[in-house]
Each structure stands twice: as C-alpha cells, then as structure tokens.
Specification:
152 residues, mainly alpha
C-alpha cells in the first residue's frame, strides 16, 4: 500500500515533529484536514470522471462502427444498382439495335411487296404485312421480356 516514497515522507514528517520544527495548533490541524479532504475529493472525482469518459468513448466508438458498416452497405448497394443499370442499358441498346434491323428489314420487304403487287391486290398486301408485323411484334416482345427476366 505504501511505497518507499510515502514511507520516507512519513519518516521525514515524524522527524520534523520530534525536533519541534512543526508545532500543532488549531490552524495547522485545520490546514491538514483541508489538504486531506481535498486529496480524497480529487481521487474520487478522478475515478468518476475516468469512468464517465470511458463510457462516452465506448458509445462514440459504437456509433462510429455502426455508421461505418452502414456506409459500407450503402456503397455495396449503390455498386450493385449501378451494375444492374449498366446491364439494363446494354440490353436496351441491344434490343434497340435488333428492332432497328427488323424495321429496316420490314421496310425493305414492304417496298418489294408493294412494287411487285398490282394496285387492285393492295388490300391483300396490307393484310399480309399486318400479319407479319404482329408476328414480329410478338417475337420481339417475348425476346425483350426474356432478356429482362434474365436481368432481374
């Protein structure tokens, strides 16, 4: 409990008392009581402040870890969302290219059909082109939905 320094100070104090360098009267006793009381208060307050600061440190550390994990999850979510958007853009671009090619093919087909058919047979030509367009639309929609289903 006592260290060498404490024991040497206590011994030095007793030597001063025995040689009558320090004389105890009321003022010295009040001063000693005040110093002793102040020392006890400082020690106890130091422990309370240390405990409170330790609790605050733990709470701040916990909050920092929580928000760090939240930031990581948000970043991963944004990256996955960006990946999906990029894939969707690629599939839409691919679909637009296919649709553009089909439109050019149909325009060429209609041009050949209308140039080779006489005018009185125009109604049958329109019915034929309408059936081709609807079958192409069904195929295009099924391909597009299949691509979107694979994407999701």
């Amino acid at each position: 409990m006592f260290t060498n320094m404490h024991l040497s100070l206590l011994l030095f104090f007793f030597v001063l008392l025995s040689k009558e360098f320090i004389i105890f009267n009321e003022e010295i006793l009040v001063l000693a009581a005040f110093v002793f009381f102040s020392r006890i208060i400082v020690i106890s307050i130091n422990q309370v402040i240390t405990a409170e600061l330790s609790l605050r440190k733990d709470k701040i550390k916990e909050n920092c870890n929580f928000f760090k994990e939240l930031q990581k999850k948000t970043l991963l979510y944004i990256l996955k969302y960006n990946e999906k958007q990029t894939k969707l853009g690629f599939y839409l671009n691919k679909s637009a290219t296919i649709i553009n090619a089909e439109i050019l093919y149909l325009a060429m087909l209609y041009t050949k059909t209308f140039n080779s058919v006489p005018v009185f047979n125009c109604m049958s030509c329109l019915n034929f082109s309408n059936s081709i367009a609807s079958s192409n639309a069904i195929l295009r929609q099924s391909h597009l939905f299949r691509g979107l289903y694979n994407f999701v």
